[in-house]
Design a protein that fits this description.
304 residues; globular; single chain; Lambda Exonuclease, Chain A; alpha+beta; 12 helices; five-stranded mixed β-sheet
């Protein structure tokens, strides 16, 4: 089986994704700043860009692990010799130092922490990678997936644009590869297990792969691979009715987001006042933009 990714002409219209709608559903004001910050007139654009660029410790740990896994898989495509674990972990430590030294962190910006505990960061990264090296998935890649390694798709370029029954959408996959007449999709996770959210992601991956590669739905096998604190996997049984329901929900959610556009075809938003705050101690404590909503305290006021 040969996999070739479809390409699409650019359109400015909203592209649905699980992460986009999740932000929209969580807090409309955060959604505005994240996707329409360039339209803001009350805040300098440099401030919007600075806040949007803030990362977090858990997010950056995930980025390091994903990029090390990408490098490992690309190396495996070139050579199936045994991995040098000392060099492997040294590379991971170097990547972590590089990433964490060059990025701005929300925990430091809002002074939730004085410093980042790099020893703890390195420990979690190495635990994730060690769990993978000792997993059945690692062995399975050598035994089965290598047979067609020239057709592996590892962190494909772009944002994973696809179409869901004509709807513009984004479903970016970590690792997609054929084994005989089947296609497998692996998605690495370094955070908490969330079977409801991750189950939707798996259906989305299968839908995107089916459309982009013209693959029959029941020949696609998506899987979440959890790397921390212990290795585990999460799979679902794909049914056509689940696919139909998933696409229907994506269309309904896109219509909701259209409702906050003054021109949905050009993806122009309504004024910022139409995007209300959703003050919540939990949501706001993880929000990059909280200083714009609560400039005096950087903390949400109690919800009465």
């Amino acid at each position: 089986m040969i996999l070739r990714y479809k390409t699409y002409d650019f359109t400015p219209a909203i592209g649905w994704s699980i992460s986009r709608y999740e932000t929209f559903d969580k807090c409309k004001r955060q959604y505005y700043y994240n996707y329409y910050g360039r339209y803001t007139t009350s805040v300098p654009i440099y401030k919007i860009k600075l806040l949007k660029a803030l990362t977090s410790i858990p997010l950056e740990i995930g980025n390091v692990v994903h990029d090390v896994m990408e490098a490992f898989l690309k190396r495996l495509q070139k050579s199936d010799t045994d991995i040098d674990e000392e060099r492997f972990f040294a590379f991971a430590r170097h990547q972590a130092q590089e990433y964490f030294s060059k990025k701005s962190f929300i925990e430091l910006y809002y002074r939730d922490l004085e410093i980042i505990d790099m020893e703890q960061v390195q420990h979690k990264i190495e635990k994730c990678l060690s769990n993978f090296l000792n997993s059945p998935t690692f062995n399975w890649l050598y035994m089965k997936a290598l047979l067609n390694k020239e057709n592996w798709m590892i962190e494909p370029d772009g944002y994973g644009e696809t179409r869901l029954d004509g709807l513009k959408a984004y479903c970016k996959m970590d690792f997609l590869f054929p084994v005989e007449d089947d296609v497998y999709i692996l998605d690495w996770k370094t955070g908490k297990r969330d079977t409801a959210k991750h189950g939707r992601q798996l259906i989305g991956y299968a839908a995107a792969a089916g459309h982009n590669f013209d693959i029959v739905f029941n020949r696609i096998f998506p899987k979440i691979v959890y790397l921390y604190p212990e290795f585990s996997e999460f799979e679902i049984s794909l049914r056509n009715e689940d696919l139909v329901a998933f696409i229907g929900n994506a269309k309904e959610q896109t219509e909701e987001m259209y409702g906050y556009c003054s021109d949905k075809d050009k993806n122009v938003p309504l004024p910022i006042e139409a995007f209300p705050l959703s003050p919540s101690p939990v949501i706001c404590s993880y929000c990059n933009y909280r200083e714009l909503c609560f400039p005096k305290t950087n903390s949400p006021q109690p919800v009465i």
